Inverse folding.
């Protein structure tokens, strides 16, 4: 694939969307950087988490638990449960991302909501691969830039002053939206939210999120949702 | 925040990514298990929204955040861009705090 062919319509469209999506995700990263520092992380810790863990909702979740006084174990548990879905995305992408072991090990780090969603929305194998790599790399760059800027600006920002404490659940609403298109997604979301609120007064901080995750077991008996129904859509 | 959490999450997150893309690859999983795992984001993100909107520590609380997140939900429902959803949620909350 030479440079000129990247500038022709189908590929150019994929690249443009990748960059736009990456930029939007960068705004989440800004919030993550601010939130991480507010929760007591150093700039280095916030940036290391974005560079190495690179899984947005899990990072937010870990920071949210720490910020509200939860233990490291409960922060890690909730975050890893959220990260588990990347394994499912990996299964989806394994048909598209072939090649050497080294290639697939790099691709693994870029496996996330946005890259999987972008790739699975393409109809040609070649465009799928391009969409996966372009979106994954674009999100990686913007996510880490945003984290750095947010972490550096963090100490100067008072979260409640600009309603930034509400910005994080608002961001989650936008991330949740595509998952509400399936019946099971809506049920899991409703049960998860109710379980969390119902157990909050009685359990240590952070644990209600783990309890909420048991809502996924409604997926066992009711095969209402089809594969296409559950396909993750662009969440940013 | 500790380095243990940073590294634990990094190793764990990469483990799941490699598990799916590289190790399990094209093997088939039991459909029931796949259906359950696919629901993790819905269940956990919804719980996080509930926690961030309606609780302070271990107590349930209703304050300006509820109006902000309600406005954000409306924005997401109207399919506004993600950035708009975030700004609306934050702005409504901040404005409500100004006038109360």
């Amino acid at each position: 694939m030479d440079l000129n062919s990247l500038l022709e319509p189908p590929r150019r469209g994929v690249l443009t969307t990748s960059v736009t999506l990456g930029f939007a995700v960068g705004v989440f990263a800004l919030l993550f950087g601010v939130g991480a520092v507010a929760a007591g992380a150093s700039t280095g810790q916030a940036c290391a988490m974005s560079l190495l863990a690179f899984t947005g909702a899990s990072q937010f979740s870990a920071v949210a638990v720490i910020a509200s006084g939860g233990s490291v174990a409960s922060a890690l548990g909730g975050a890893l449960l959220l990260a588990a879905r990347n394994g499912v995305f990996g299964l989806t992408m394994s048909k598209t991302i072939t090649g050497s072991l080294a290639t697939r090990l790099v691709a693994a780090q870029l496996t996330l909501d946005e890259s999987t969603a972008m790739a699975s929305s393409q109809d040609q194998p070649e465009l799928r691969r391009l969409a996966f790599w372009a979106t994954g790399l674009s999100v990686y760059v913007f996510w880490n830039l945003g984290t750095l800027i947010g972490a550096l600006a963090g100490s100067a920002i008072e979260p409640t002053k600009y309603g930034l404490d509400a910005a994080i659940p608002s961001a989650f609403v936008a991330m949740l939206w595509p998952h509400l298109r399936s019946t099971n997604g809506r049920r899991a979301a409703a049960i998860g939210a109710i379980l969390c609120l119902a157990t909050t007064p009685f359990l240590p901080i952070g644990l209600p999120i783990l309890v909420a995750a048991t809502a996924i077991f409604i997926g066992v008996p009711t095969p209402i949702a089809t594969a296409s129904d559950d396909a993750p859509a662009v969440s940013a | 925040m500790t380095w243990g959490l940073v590294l634990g999450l990094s190793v764990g997150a990469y483990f799941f990514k490699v598990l799916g893309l590289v190790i399990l690859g094209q093997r088939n999983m039991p459909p029931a298990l796949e259906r359950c795992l696919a629901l993790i984001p819905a269940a956990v993100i919804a719980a996080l929204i509930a926690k961030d909107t309606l609780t302070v520590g271990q107590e349930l609380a209703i304050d300006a955040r509820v109006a902000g997140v309600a406005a954000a939900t409306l924005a997401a429902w109207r399919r506004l861009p993600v950035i708009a959803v975030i700004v609306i949620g934050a702005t409504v909350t901040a404005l409500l705090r100004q006038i109360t």
Q: What stands out?
A: The helical segments of chain B are 3-24, 31-38, 40-54, 64-77, 82-99. Chain B has a mean pLDDT of 89. Residues 3-24 of chain B form the longest helix (22 residues). The CA atoms of residues 68 and 92 of chain B lie 5 Å apart.
